[in-house]
Request: fold
Amino acid sequence: MKITLKGGIEKEYASGTTAYDIARDLSEGLARAACAARMDSAVVDLRQPITDDCALEILTFDDPDGRKAFRHTASHVLAQAVLRLYPGVKLAIGPSTDEGFYYDFDRDSGAFTAEEIPVIEAEIKKIIKEDPPIERFTLPRDKALELVADEPYKVELINDLPEDAEIGFYTQGGFTDLCAGPHLMNMKPLKGIKLISEAGSSGAYWRGSEKNKMLSRIYGTAFPKTSELEEYLIQREEAKKRDHNKLGRELGIFTSHEAIGQGLPLLMPKGAKIFQILTRFVEDEEERRGYVLTKTPYMAKSDLYKISGHWDLYREGMFIMGEADDPYALRPMTCPFQFTIYNAGQHSYRDLPIRYGETATLFRNESSGEMHGLIRVRQFTISEGHLVMTREQLGDEFRGVVDLANFMMKTFGIENDISYRFSMWDPDNKDKYVGEPEHWEEAQEEMEKLLNELGLDFVKAPGEAAFYGPKLDIQFRNVHGKEDTVITIQIDFALAERFGMTYTERDGSKKNPIIIHRTSIGCYERTIAMLIEKYAGAFPTWLSPTQVIVLPISDKYSDYAGEVYAKLKAKGIRAEIDNRAEKIGYKIREARNERIPYILVAGEKEAAAGTVSLRSRAGDEGEVTVEQVIERVTFETETRVNNSGS
Ligand SMILES: [Zn+2]
Ligand SMILES: [Zn+2]
Reply:
């Protein structure tokens, strides 16, 4: 058979040769580093015999799929170690993650404690040292069920597989686990391995649903070199310090309460101020770019969502209320509301494009296992907008929307932390989408053409489209190395027809417009989280909830400090005054911890001269006049200069 290798080189091998054999034929070094293989487009185990002509790529840890196989192998070693130490524990699942791997266990005596984690880690290292061979085998369904009869979660997983599926297992040193693979050939490469559940296991519901049993999840990570592990651990410490879920609470930006519920954070005065700064910035910029505002209800009858397709395709994700025969739902997006506004009037081609914008609060019923700080929430506010246009206007409008998004990212100083993802539909799963296949093809072709014209460096993500159209996702890579979508832009050829949206063409005929669904900064809560982590809480002046704090050295100077404070406030500067009877050194330290950009100290000398002593993020700047401070802060606010100093 003919194997096409990377770089287009073709080689002849006997049918039945495995990917591992081919790796060894290429070089011993490659075979040692090999984690899995890509056969045409499928990721396969290195053990897999190849019987037909194909393109083959040997995947190492540097390839995301190779890395997955590497870390997934590590998760099996974790499971093996746990079973050796705690016989009778039931095994759930153990996938790789972006940063490592985890395994979920069901232990009668409950969670694993902080003391048990190092014991398990030592056992993992022992097993790796023993270096048992890793073997793969398959069984027909009945035999597979027999083998896992004592493992209720595995039984459930097998029962969910298609009737004719060949069921894979991996076995190593007497430990066998149900698994589709792929796995490493042996454990030798698992050199930099560490459990990162230092505080003990965390709770995770079986299959992510709170209706199911809570399991004990142990996290770990693995690298081919111990030096890589060490580097990762240092980065992780740095990321922890910036973690918005910790820092955002410490800085008084947000809080949460069990009685209010998961995924429902409360913005405290500082967080609400940042929120207000952001919404004003976005709304004013949209106004400049020809958007018109709408303000629409937070809920609607099911009738509306039936027209939009949400009722059929997105009901699981909505909060439904009211009587069963007349249900209402909290809105998961604004589209059908803004479409209704469009339909309230007659439109001709001369009226188009119309750009609707709304700072819209939305509700999505995500499972509580997914909730996290300000990033995974059930209620959030977004700069939603829908642009209604003719086919001829699509190019200009799309470019305008991308330009607005890039302007926002640049202003936030994150233009180098983002990437573009072109999310396409999955033509093999047509029932997940509304609209005609030819419309999908046309919308996608058009979007790809526009993206290429704009010179954006994007990756394609099949199956990630919205149910009504392909989208451009702007992805932000956070301090944990994880990607979150901050902005989406969607081209929609389907919903105008469903909603009966029309306009009159030049020749008098009625036509359905094209719609772009878009956000200019995405979800405000998520944006705040992203900015906390980006700036480690030290926001640029224009975004700082408190820009200046005035600190009288003692009670004697509080009147003078009060005058300074009043001058700042009169100029619209976000100022605070700290009149507490604390030592000045303590007050300065506290203001620094709050990351306030400008600290003004007022004592005898300053009161006499009508000045203040200025401490900025750059350090002690000495005496300046209040007017100088006002000028500087006003300039930085108006120009939105990125002076975080972080
Ligand atoms: Zn596995
Ligand atoms: Zn929409």
User: Anything to note?
Assistant: The pocket of zinc ion (ligand 1) is lined by residues 72, 76, 170, 177, 179, 181, 183 (CB under 6 Å). The domain at 2-60 is CATH 3.10.20.30 (Ubiquitin-like (UB roll)). The radius of gyration is 29 Å. Residues 496 and 512 are 6 Å apart (CA to CA).
